[in-house]
């Protein structure tokens, strides 16, 4: 079960890294001074990735907890 904990930690870190990328992408889009319609389109794409990153992080944390419980 130790492997489950480590794999869960890696999955969680991947989700957090993707969350940080989403934050940076939104900051870059705002600084670019795009028109409202283009900015909204970019933000909608990032929101989908943001939800995916949150799901990935949650799954990784569940794997860690399950690994700890089973040890």
Please provide a written account of the structure.
By secondary structure, the protein is an all-alpha fold. It has one domain. 92% of the residues lie in helices and 0% in strands. It has 2 helices and no strands. The protein is rod-shaped and about 55 Å long. The model has no long low-confidence stretch (mean pLDDT 94).
- Major β-sheet annotation: none
Continuous helix count: 2
The coarse silhouette is rod-shaped
Tell me the fraction of residues in β-strands, as a range. Answer: under 5%
Q: What's the Cα radius of gyration?
A: 16 Å
Q: How helical, in percent, are the residues?
A: over 70%
Number of domains: 1
Structural class: mainly alpha
* Distance separating the two termini: 6 Å
Order of helices and strands: HH
Summarize this structure as a short list of keywords or feature phrases:
71 residues; mainly alpha; 2 helices; 92% helix; rod-shaped
Offer a quick outline of the entry.
The protein has 71 residues and is mainly alpha-helical.
Protein topology:
Elements: H1 2-31, H2 36-70
Helix pairs in contact: 1-2
């Amino acid at each position: 079960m130790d492997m489950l904990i480590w794999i869960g930690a890696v999955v969680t870190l991947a989700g957090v890294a993707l969350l940080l990328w989403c934050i940076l992408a939104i900051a870059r889009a705002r600084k670019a001074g795009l028109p409202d319609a283009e900015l909204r389109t970019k933000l909608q794409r990032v929101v989908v990735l943001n939800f995916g990153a949150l799901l990935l992080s949650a799954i990784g944390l569940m794997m860690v907890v399950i690994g700890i419980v089973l040890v």
